[in-house]
Write a sequence for this structure.
């Protein structure tokens, strides 16, 4: 006798648009699939982004590196580059600060030296006689007798400019007083001409941090009694500085 076994009913399979077998869906499912296909054709970027997001959730190793973080080698390379850039920047800032400090210190010395030279020149121009240095000589001080009186000095008063330690001083005879003209003085040299009594003043200022400034000028006394040669510079007691009010 031939017996027949009833096999399980084979589902009604049909191929989809990609060639895969699938079970039939209801109308709503078919519409959803068609909508997905339409979106993929019209806006493929959104479909790719959605697929990448799903791949990220599954830990796909083929995901772009920017979404997976940085490796240890990359972090070390970035740290080394930032360290080099920081070292260069710090060196530049320190050098700029050092140059700025040096410039400020030199300007301070320059202003102080110029003021001291100007004050000495104004007094030496009124000199009637010069005691030291001798004609054609030099030294670290100058002593003279002024001709006219000023608000601080009297007529025919003996005045000396000298360096004491690191200070440049003006020593008055009447009334006796010592006035500091400048500080940070490293050297003070006075040279007197051999034939024309022209006075050359050289002033060198220095700071402990290393900044140095050297200034020099020439001045000719205008009231010398013993000078009869250089008449274009000498006024024979007729010169007097006029101070405006």
């Amino acid at each position: 006798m031939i017996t027949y076994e009833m096999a399980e009913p084979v589902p009604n399979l049909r191929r989809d648009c990609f060639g895969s077998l699938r079970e039939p869906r209801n109308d709503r499912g078919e519409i959803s699939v068609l909508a997905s296909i339409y979106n993929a054709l019209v806006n493929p970027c959104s479909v790719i982004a959605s697929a990448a997001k799903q791949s990220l959730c599954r830990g796909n190793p083929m995901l772009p590196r920017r979404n997976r973080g940085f490796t240890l080698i990359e972090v070390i390379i970035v740290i080394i580059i930032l360290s080099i850039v920081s070292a260069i920047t710090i060196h530049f800032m320190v050098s700029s600060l050092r140059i700025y400090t040096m410039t400020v210190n030199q300007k301070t010395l320059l202003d102080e030296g110029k003021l001291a030279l100007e004050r000495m020149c104004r007094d030496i121009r009124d000199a009637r006689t010069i005691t030291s240095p001798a004609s054609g000589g030099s030294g670290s001080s100058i002593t003279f007798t002024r001709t006219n009186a000023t608000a601080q000095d009297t007529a025919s008063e003996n005045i000396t400019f000298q360096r004491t330690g690191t200070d440049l001083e003006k020593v008055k005879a009447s009334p006796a007083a010592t006035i500091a003209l400048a500080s940070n003085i490293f050297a003070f040299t006075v040279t007197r001409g051999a034939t024309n009594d022209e006075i050359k003043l050289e002033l060198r200022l220095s700071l402990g941090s290393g900044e140095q400034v050297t200034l020099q000028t020439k001045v000719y006394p205008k009231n010398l009694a013993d000078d009869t040669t250089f008449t274009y510079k000498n006024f024979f007691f007729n010169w007097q500085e006029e101070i405006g009010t």
Remarks:
- Residues 51 and 57 are 10 Å apart (CA to CA).
- Residues 101-219 form one domain.
- The two ends are 150 Å apart (CA to CA).
- The mean pLDDT is 77.
